[in-house]
Amino acid sequence: MADLPAPLDPAEALSRAAEAAPLLAALPRARRAAAMVAAADALQAAGDELIPIGARETGLPTARLTGELRRTAVQLRLLADVAADGTALDVRLDEADPGFALGPRPDLRRTRVPLGPALVFAAGNFPFAFSVAGGDTAAALAAGCPVVVKAHPGHPELSRRTAAIVAGALAAAGLPTASLQLIEGEEAGVAALRDPRTAVASFTGSVRGGQALAAIAAGRARPIPFYGELGSVNPVFVTAAAAAERGEAIADGFVASVSGSAGQLCTKPGFLLVPEGHGLDDRIAEAAGAVAGQRLLSAPISAGYASRRDEILGADGVRVLADGGVEVGADGVAVATPTVVAIGLGALVSGREHLLDEAFGPLSVVVTVPRGTPLTAAAALFPGVLAAGVHLGAAERGEPDDAVRDLVAALTASAGRVLFDGWPTGVAVTPAMQHGGPWPSTTADATSVGTDAIGRYQRAVAYQDAPAWLLPDELRDGADVPQALSPAGASAEWGARFR
Amino acid sequence: MADLPAPLDPAEALSRAAEAAPLLAALPRARRAAAMVAAADALQAAGDELIPIGARETGLPTARLTGELRRTAVQLRLLADVAADGTALDVRLDEADPGFALGPRPDLRRTRVPLGPALVFAAGNFPFAFSVAGGDTAAALAAGCPVVVKAHPGHPELSRRTAAIVAGALAAAGLPTASLQLIEGEEAGVAALRDPRTAVASFTGSVRGGQALAAIAAGRARPIPFYGELGSVNPVFVTAAAAAERGEAIADGFVASVSGSAGQLCTKPGFLLVPEGHGLDDRIAEAAGAVAGQRLLSAPISAGYASRRDEILGADGVRVLADGGVEVGADGVAVATPTVVAIGLGALVSGREHLLDEAFGPLSVVVTVPRGTPLTAAAALFPGVLAAGVHLGAAERGEPDDAVRDLVAALTASAGRVLFDGWPTGVAVTPAMQHGGPWPSTTADATSVGTDAIGRYQRAVAYQDAPAWLLPDELRDGADVPQALSPAGASAEWGARFR
Predict the structure, then answer these.
(1) Cβ atoms of residues B95 and B486 within 8 Å
(2) Do residues A197 and A281 both lie within one domain?
């Protein structure tokens, strides 16, 4: 493929990124935004070329990839707007105040600046939306950081073509040529993470991989922030009322959420907690049996899924509701249909060591909670998840209920997103999204989806008594960005209303 | 001292904090704010008792401690207001949108919740403002986290009395009794940091101590965020024009900033960079010679300062401008007057290994920059500092100047705060303050002073399609807090203005 750029040496990539960083940071925000929109346009225009490559390399259906490419372009456009409008700069202005309670207060103006070269480890399960031009890249570019993407080995050709198209569009729109670069291979990724010029890194993948990379980032001579989105089992709780009122619809929705993209989503519901005697076993089995076999993403994922599935099927107290097969082909890649098992809460608690880790693929566990045991008792099994769901009965939705309140409080303590009467798969790309929760779902408090994702690539800087001409545009009086003004003399009043 | 509470076992403290955490989180924010104001009042009312204890234990002058106690109370009041007004919750509301570009968008509402038990390592150099009831404690309480303070060994009696007074006031105002607890000793601090119930930790102290604690926090089975404010040398740059226009005032201000609190401040200017031939040596020597001897905080700090001072005085190319003594008393605590040395930029670069680390105490280094070498050339020597200063001439203040612009760009890349025509000591407690910069000045992007300090003790949670009665107050329609609304249908417009 003569038209594909050769993968870069990581040191060379970081050297070029470090040179590009101050240039990119100094460009007007609107210029950066325009380049990101141009990149989104170029990406969508190349859909006919890219989608077939993605389908061949990942086995994902064309319809899914088409939607994902659209989402990826929308993410770039949304974050272009965030880059331009200045909200994410969190501008704060203190007026000078000679009468301040603690002595004369200077003129102080705070904004957020790009951290510098960002290293993005691409994911395998979203070859567009969490890969070369995905959410992390969009957020880092919006912040003003040049990006070095470590390609995922699952879709190398798609990664190179995407990088060529997006980097080309960014450069044609006037950004430094090193604003987006691609490196390949685990060794190159680790070398880039150790490179002193790398200022921040983000990762989407397994707990084990993320933990290893987080340790490298923390152990550098100059540690850097590392944002890992790791494993999550996303439990969904069904109250007795909900099961009674619309159990069959819940069973169908559950199977659809478990089996979409062959269960290879970080938000797949790994556990469904239902009151004992729910009577939905047959419906779940039927729905699961109606799902056609789907190819898994790769040979390593197929092997991991098959072995994890065996481990779960062999655990004490596990009963099979739907025995989806895993047929491994000559290339090591499996075709799978959904496997759903059931277990009692007590057996799950005893077998927690083997049962509670994520199973990446179309498998989920239905947990029956004994009558009389509150659903909340099961919540502590899941201390850190991206999302947790609750299905409520109509009366519970309508008015306060102590058991529901306790359950939601417990889930709030362990999840980044708590959702109702729906499924955790499907993550809206919006300002209010939170895609990140307590360990091990993520390594740090942050979101990797939505507008707040930009914050991971910035840090705050305050300017004290600076001449106006030296201030960044957004800190000047009356700049066209949201500015939070601290009124003069406020300190004398602080807390007064509570005395 | 029978009336002092016995120091707690760390496991017992964390057990009580973990029980208190959900109770504290569930209290109305105004209730938490009122309790913090009550604590501020109680602290100030106890000034006549506390200040003499602090003076005896730390050797800091009464005037300084009086001001610091006032600042500590103001911090509590400011953060009480932040707790109550809801700005720091960063509330974001997405309306449901069936016509959203990427498929139906749910109703999504995001707020920030307390992380849980917070471990605060108190500092030795601010026995009120960065100790038991200091900025970290105020921020954590404002976020809704119970606090376990690891006392600094430099002021044990003051720590116990402060804890008793503040914990008593918080409990009397209706907060859980374990909202503020004290533990003592290095071993207890490390055990608390390893305790699985600890959710976040913050620290103010040395690079070495902070690095060791950061590694413990990162190496836990369940890693937690660790916010360390470590060492900083806070360079101040003087342009030729500023030196010519008001060199003597700068020399005097420099010595005052270096010698205040005997130089034991994290914002002490450790380096003054001036153009060669500045002619201020005598004025600096004279100003330094006029400063009376001051007792250092403790025997370990005295020993550390004396040895660091010897190392600097013995380095190649160092010339003494003011030879402040260090007289160590029988108790190991020294009395010191300011030591100021001079060195050429070239010699500093060659001796950087020995010269660039912080000297904690009343010592600073004047660096002469050869005529023709831009000041910017020296900026790269200081890659991570809390603050950096620039003194400008009147013309440079008035209109754009490329050399100044380049210098400020370089300092923006390495400092949390860039200040003009002043000194880094003196940190305003306000919304726009940023007290935290690149490594090694801090371990993570955050501020430990000002209203944004609260963010270190919170994480974001989104509620999707939740019944109104289950939402936290601040997420309900029309709640009395700032709410950022995402308009429906926006995605179709994203980026459109840049196409």
Answers:
(1) yes
(2) no
Tokens of A21: 């960083």
| CATH code of the domain containing A407 | 3.40.309.10
Considering the domain architecture, whether residues B285 and B215 belong to the same structural domain is answered as: no
Q: Does A71 touch chain B (CB under 8 A)?
A: yes
B452 contacts on A by Cβ (under 8 Å): 92, 460
For residue A489, is pLDDT > 80? Answer: no
- CB < 8 Å from B in window 194-253 of A: 214-215, 218-219, 222-225
Average of pLDDT values for A176-181? 97
B87 & B185 share domain:
yes
pLDDT category at B7 given cuts 50, 70, 90 is: low
**Chain A, window 326-355: residues with a beta carbon less than 8 angstroms from a chain B beta carbon:** none
Phi, psi of A188 (to 5 degrees): -65, -40
The residues pairing with B335 across neighbouring beta strands, listed in sequence order, are: B295, B327
Residues A278/A446, Cβ–Cβ less than 8 Å: no
Q: What tokens does A56 get?
A: 């061949």
First to last CA, chain A: 73
**What does the pLDDT look like over A272-309, one tens digit per residue?**
999 999 999 999 999 999 999 999 999 999 999 999 99
ipTM over 0.95: yes
Residue B45 lies inside a defined structural domain of this protein? yes
Residues A156 and A99 in one domain: yes
End-to-end CA distance of chain B: 73
A219 in the same domain as A323 = no
Shortest Cα distance, chain B CAs vs residue A313, angstroms: 27
Q: Is residue A412 part of a domain?
A: yes
Rounded to two decimals, what is the model's pTM? 0.96
Cβ–Cβ contact B480 with A under 8 A: no
Residue A409 and residue B26: Cβ atoms within 8 Å? yes
| Domain limits for position A272 | 236-420
**Overall average pLDDT of the A109-113 stretch:** 98
